[in-house]
Amino acid sequence: MPAESGEGERAPILRSGPQPAVDSQSIAPRALPGPGRTEKNVVGVRILPVFAAKGGAFFAVCAGIMAMMGGIFQINPIWLYGPFDASVVASPAQPDWYVGWLDGSLRIFPPFEPVILGLTIPSVFVPGVVLPGILFTIVALWPFIESWMSKDRADHHLLDDPWDHPVRFATGLAILAIFGVLTLAGGNDVLAFYFGTDVHTLTILFRWLSLILPVVVWLVAWRFARARSSGGPSHGGGDLVDEVRRSGTGVRRNPAGGFEEVEP
After folding, report:
1. Across residues 182-204, what is the average pLDDT?
2. By C-alpha distance, which of 186, 171, 177 is closest to 209?
3. Percent of the chain, pLDDT > 90?
4. In this predicted structure, which of 7-16, 164-173, 247-256 has the lowest mean pLDDT?
5. Residue 221: which pLDDT band, with cuts at 50, 70 and 90?
6. Full-prediction pTM beyond 0.70?
């Protein structure tokens, strides 16, 4: 099946038989639904010459800026700071934003140290190793899990709206809710200072939120997606789209200059 290029030219991207499915001279990303874009064709841009020229220009600009920064700007002059002194570090000290959720899981996890076969499992093992492993494993394996559950192994060239797949939508938001709660928990001492409460109260609050909020978010998101896409995918011409197109009241201007309602 040939595919359209960005200028309407037909680029032979998909072929039948054992040949490669994608032409080495073309870039065929998934696209938003629109005129001329279907699940049976690919709208893309050839690598040569435009895409390669843009990529090379962007590389040259980045390399030039980094070279200029390395030669002109002074970054992290440790020789001016001297030896490390813990007493000059401001308190409260917070982790970087991208590991704040991990720090939060360490802060709110209870002091649980089980003994297995005579070995004591430290309390940081579950929040620091097991929990991140579970979350990232779910994220990494989700495409394969969804493909196995839906039995859908066909090629897709159009992007989905979030509500087209309620379980995927709800699961993604639930995981984001977990990360959000844990990130806030990573700053529980700062929050306690500004809100005038004690750290222990916030720790208990974040423990409950980390268990309850993801479930609530999943149920609300799943319900919303089900209601939003009850007629099928929005770009697939489902009953919901047809119903929306037929619903409402049309307005037409009459010969006298006024307006009258008509059926859509």
Report:
1. 91
2. 177
3. 35
4. 7-16
5. very high
6. no
Pull the structure tokens for residue 222: 């799943």
* Whole-number Å distance between alpha carbons of 264 and 262: 6
Q: Using CA atoms of 111, 116, 119, 123 in order, give the dihedral in degrees to the nearest 10.
A: -20
* Mean pLDDT, residues 118-139 taken together: 91
Got the DSSP string for 195-258?
Answer: HT--HHHHHHHHHHHHHHHHHHHHHHHHHHHHHHTTTS-GGGT-HHHHHHHH-S-EEEE-TTS-
C-alpha span between 238 and 230 (Å, rounded): 9
**How buried is residue 179: exposed, middle or buried, by Cβ count under 10 Å (0-12/13-18/19+)?**
middle
Q: Give the torsion through C-alpha atoms of 233, 236, 239, 244, to 10 deg.
A: 90
> Which amino acid belongs to residue 148?
W
The angle, 0 to 180 degrees and rounded to 10, between the axes of the packed helices 131-150 and 100-108 is: 110
Strand partners, 236: none
Q: Provide the token pair at 41.
A: 């064709």
pLDDT(209) > 90: yes
Tokens 């059926």, located at residue: 263
pLDDT for res 30? 65
């076969």: which residue's tokens?
A: 117
Contact, 44 vs 13, CB < 8 A?
yes
Kindly list the distances between the CA atom of residue 68 and the CA atoms of 64, 79, 106, 204, in Å, as whole numbers in the listed order. 6, 22, 41, 50
Mean pLDDT of 220-228: 92
